[in-house]
Amino acid sequence: MKNIARQQMSIKVSSMDLLNNQIKLEAHASATYLAMASWCDQNAFTNSAEFFYAQSAEERDHMMKIFKFISESGGIAISPTVEDINHDFSNLEEVFETALDHEIMVTKSIHKILATARNDQDYVVENFLQWFVQEQLEEEKSLRNILDLFELMGRDGIALKLIDERVTRGE
Amino acid sequence: MTSVYQSKFYTLYQSNTDRYFYIDFGQKVVKLSFCQLLALRQKVNSISIEAHFDADLNKHGFEVLMLCNKEHLFLLNTLEILDLKNLVCYGFALLGISSENTMVAS
Ligand SMILES: [Fe+2]
Ligand SMILES: [Fe+2]
User: Domain of A29?
Assistant: First the structure.
């Protein structure tokens, strides 16, 4: 039997399913960061708002990167639906902490797909995901740096203003 | 035409001459490009079989399946859906682009 299916698609369908799920996660992250930007704007944390607007755009880029990879591999990329976006936070620290938790969740998901791809000898996918492994490391680090500021400067009104001033886009 | 996999109700064929796939649904045979076959897999896999056992979610236990950009329409019951899921799972494994592990999982 000729392998017509393999001629049409360079990745395993199991990888495709997991990558489509990752598209959903990236879209969810993008929308979550937008909600965080909105909260920061409402509470006059201008730099933090800018930080989250930039993060939101980055997550959309991640989503598109995976989306196009699936299409270019001959698979079917699924446009995601996004639900359950939280807009309520009790303070600025909680916003950044939630963002870090979100990134950790995404990191775990990337690692899981990579492990599955490796197991299935789907080396194209494994190679594609290496960029994301590095990216996740950097995103976690930048959020951790911001969270360190709360330990350093405290959590009263003035401290929060100073922390916000220190938050820069893509720090 | 080569038979790839036969489930209880359906058969998946591959044609080496026109590079299309064919599914014999019993009442009719549907011709699918690889992309359309992938789309069928997507649709079949996203059907919640659990909903068939919950009268609030799926009152009558039927599923409407549209294929090839709405060219074909099927009305399938629970057993037929289960069988189609089986066809998709084993069919893709035999086509050689599925994970070796999914067969054990599903
Ligand atoms: Fe991301
Ligand atoms: Fe991220």
Answer: 11-77+90-167
